[in-house]
Amino acid sequence: MGVGLEDSCVHCGFCLEACPTYVVTRSEVHSPRGRITAVKLDVDSQGFDTCMFCRRCELACPSGVEYARIITKVRRATPEKILMNSLLERPRLAWRVLKAGKSLNSGLIQRVRLSLRDPQEPLEYREESPEVILFPGCLTSLAYRRTVENALKFLKAKGLRVSVLNGCCGLAHRSEGQVERAQELVRRLTNVKGGTLVSLSSNCTAHMRESGVQVLDFSEYVLGLLGQERVELSLTVHDPCHANMIGLGKATREVLRKLGVNLVEMEEPSFECGAGGGYFLFHPQIAENVMELKAEKIRRSGTNLVVSTNPSCSLVLSFKGFQVVHLADLLAQTVTKSLE
Ligand code: SF4
Ligand code: SF4
């Protein structure tokens, strides 16, 4: 038998307290080490499905274990998850399906409808010879059209030509073990021609960059555009898990610093929010327990206003009663001139 990636795990357990599903269950089965052990032993485990794919264990691991590559080898997406991911590939079709969803006898569609509350028609916007190709990400297109409009408003106010590119980067597929489909989707973004590809969903930015796509996160792109803009607010910042792996929180904080906001750091800003992409739809109890831990950390910061640059995180934080904004929403407040 050859040596697998899983063999680099020395069972030290340093990853355990970083893992949200271990923290809320205290069960080895639902821990990174337990999942890796099951892979080593070549046995099936309930823990494969309960992983949130936040990859916090990778950051905590002193042995450099490539957990994401190990878990995606053994994860098998259920038909419901395959259906959801294929809809995310086409945000406009997803919107139509969700609109018609009231009359569809599908538990999944009803759960998604309820979570998004008011799914919106993805914004279509194109200009000749764009300098910026704005990639909202599938869920942002559907759940946060206002944020896409706000990003566009700010970029246009800076005199830039922009086109919006709706679609999916494949992160949702990869997290469920649909690795080939994920690669096909992200490869399309590698071939985007024209302007600078700018992503509005920071976990998508991280996934794309890791897959070799030349992309800037919105936070990174706007840093070079800021001038005298000011926002007088007190707020805290949540660091989405994949974005945190490539340090995007630094750019987010730099934008906020330039805007002059009063930033109150929460405890462990990169602690998982409980969304896990679409995880909260399939494992509501574990997700709720993780969300509550996150909510406590936010409450202790003393502010109710949270900056989140990733849509699934924004959704679940709003479920807990917080007011959630994207950087684009703050920047749009600084623009007096309307888009029209
Ligand atoms: S994954 Fe890394 S941190 Fe976790 S038990 Fe294995 S070697 Fe230790
Ligand atoms: S990816 Fe997240 S949920 Fe999965 S084992 Fe690692 S830390 Fe735990």
TrEMBL record:
<dbReference type="Pfam" id="PF12838">
    <property type="entry name" value="Fer4_7"/>
</dbReference>
<keyword id="KW-0677">Repeat</keyword>
<dbReference type="GO" id="GO:0046872">
    <property type="term" value="F:metal ion binding"/>
</dbReference>
<feature type="domain" description="4Fe-4S ferredoxin-type">
    <location>
        <begin position="1"/>
        <end position="29"/>
    </location>
</feature>
<dbReference type="GO" id="GO:0051539">
    <property type="term" value="F:4 iron, 4 sulfur cluster binding"/>
</dbReference>
<dbReference type="InterPro" id="IPR017896">
    <property type="entry name" value="4Fe4S_Fe-S-bd"/>
</dbReference>
<keyword id="KW-0004">4Fe-4S</keyword>
<dbReference type="InterPro" id="IPR004017">
    <property type="entry name" value="Cys_rich_dom"/>
</dbReference>
<keyword id="KW-0408">Iron</keyword>
<dbReference type="Pfam" id="PF02754">
    <property type="entry name" value="CCG"/>
</dbReference>
<dbReference type="GO" id="GO:0016491">
    <property type="term" value="F:oxidoreductase activity"/>
</dbReference>
<keyword id="KW-0411">Iron-sulfur</keyword>
<dbReference type="InterPro" id="IPR017900">
    <property type="entry name" value="4Fe4S_Fe_S_CS"/>
</dbReference>
<keyword id="KW-0479">Metal-binding</keyword>
<protein>
    <submittedName>
        <fullName>Fe-S oxidoreductase</fullName>
    </submittedName>
</protein>
<feature type="domain" description="4Fe-4S ferredoxin-type">
    <location>
        <begin position="39"/>
        <end position="65"/>
    </location>
</feature>
<dbReference type="InterPro" id="IPR009051">
    <property type="entry name" value="Helical_ferredxn"/>
</dbReference>
